[in-house]
């Protein structure tokens, strides 16, 4: 269960008097369980129709406690069950209609019976090229330039990992400060080195014959990825002499 801030006296002003929360407050609430969630990811899930936050006259998003709970369900189904966003959306809509539905299971048929499959290397949610362009608000030329610098790389089938939306959105935001994609090659190289270090640790687990051990490798990868991201952020803040909220 996600805990939402009360917004009462003595707790700052994370929510309005109506109990609605800003996207920054929602991010802080979700990060207890989902440390890698970003504002760009929340915006992307909104664009995909998973949530519908209210808007102020100025256009700012305002989230209810129900919106935050729904976001938690979406992120949990992505993380724990590797379900596509379309399947997640249809499932949540059925639940809200009061239908008695079970969580969808990806599986195969055997003698007329559905047998759940646990993939050895779960495939992350994917997004098509056109969807990526629309979600990030960029054109084809910009995407090709970013690909030439290694900031975004399509999969073998031409699609992208859903996290590409987050990368693209951050590149756009940095561009507003005059930081061009070519300036980010050093960050990409550093990220590749960090990923290589994590891979060295988990590679023996991934090659193990025991399926449970291989599954443990996936969990260990996520844990190490979270730690490296936090360390990287802390080192950057220390080098700049700033502290982010």
UniProtKB/TrEMBL annotation:
Keywords: DNA-binding. SUPFAM superfamilies: Putative DNA-binding domain. Pfam families: MerR_1. CDD domains: HTH_MerR-like. The keyword Secreted does not apply. The keyword ATP-binding does not apply. It comes from the Bacteria. PROSITE patterns: HTH_MERR_2. Residues 37-94 form the HTH merR-type domain. SMART domains: HTH_MERR. This is MerR family transcriptional regulator. It comes from Streptomyces levis. The lineage of its organism: Bacteria, Bacillati, Actinomycetota, Actinomycetes, Kitasatosporales.
